[in-house]
Specification:
- The C terminus is likely disordered.
- The longest helix is centred in the last third of the chain and has 16 residues.
- A hairpin with a 2-residue loop joins strand 9 and strand 10.
- The strands form two sheets. A six-stranded mixed β-sheet has the order 6-7-8-3-9-10. The protein has a four-stranded antiparallel β-sheet with strand order 2-1-4-5, with helices on one face.
- It has a single domain, classed as P-loop containing nucleotide triphosphate hydrolases (Rossmann fold, 3-Layer(aba) Sandwich), CATH 3.40.50.300.
- It has about 250 residues and is an alpha/beta fold.
- About 35% of the residues lie in helices and about 25% in strands.
- It starts with a strand and ends in an 8-residue tail after the last helix.
Length: about 250
């Protein structure tokens, strides 16, 4: 299989045990790859390396065979990104922000943007400063998908959405995956990961401690496989042992 995303022994060390250390993983074309772990585990640090926001201390991160740090500007039109923390420019309406982002991506046909606005039921006439967290999350979703990128890097993408809109988003992810998109998904919502993902890694204290082939687990265990219970059991065993977990194929 072709690897769309490749992280090879990548380390970003912020000191005092903070960061991501010796991360190695690959994501195949058309695959949805989950990235799970508690707060502060190193998920966002890893994602920031993929986005080219910071340079790793060692190792490499590549997307489409291009170095994420050196070729970040080239890669930006191939990637849709939803950050964990949404920061928007003050003094703009949702419509104004979307028009600005369309211009940045060179979008002249706005039909996809309009489809996304309707699907996620966002009132874009509101000023971004007055938007609720859920509305800002919807705006970020629309921005990430508006240019129809082949790769989606999603950091807690449905956090702050109400349950009905979370379901709508999960359905949308499944549709995008069926279209051949490659997704890298960090999420605390187990149902979102369980429905969308083919494989996943669990990260703790900056290190990947387990990798699971979800498709294989589903074939082996069928309806008996419970991702949330697996995750909880994994951490319970890990805490009792007082050490990192053992990687699983």
């Amino acid at each position: 299989m072709t690897d769309t995303i490749l992280i090879d022994h990548m380390t970003k060390d912020y000191g005092l045990g903070r960061g991501a250390f010796d991360i190695t993983l690959s994501v195949h074309a058309g695959e949805c790859y989950g990235f799970l772990g508690p707060n502060g585990a190193g998920k966002t640090t890893t994602i920031r390396q993929l986005m080219g926001f910071t340079r790793p201390n060692s190792g490499r991160a590549e997307i489409l065979g291009r170095d994420c740090w050196r070729e970040a500007a080239v890669l930006k039109n191939h990637i849709g990104y939803i950050p964990g923390e949404i920061v928007l420019p003050a003094g703009m309406t949702g419509t104004g922000f979307l028009r600005m982002m369309e211009k940045m991506h060179g979008i002249t046909d706005t039909s996809r943007t309009e489809m996304l606005i309707e699907r996620f039921r966002l009132d874009t006439s509101s000023g971004v400063k007055k938007m609720s967290f859920g509305m800002k999350r919807k705006l970020a979703i629309i921005t990430a998908f508006m240019h129809d990128p082949e790769i989606l890097i999603l950091d807690e993408p449905s956090s702050g959405l109400d349950p009905l809109m979370q379901k709508e988003f999960i359905d949308f992810l499944a549709e995008e995956k069926a279209r051949g998109k490659t997704l890298f998904l960090s999420s605390h919502i187990f149902h979102e990961v369980d429905v969308a993902c083919d494989r996943l890694s669990i990260i703790k204290e900056g290190y990947i401690v387990s990798e699971i082939d979800l498709n294989a687990r589903r074939r082996e265990e069928g309806a008996a496989f419970d991702l949330e219970q697996y995750f909880m059991d994994f951490y319970r065993t890990d805490v009792q042992a007082g050490k990192g977990g053992e990687a699983h194929a």
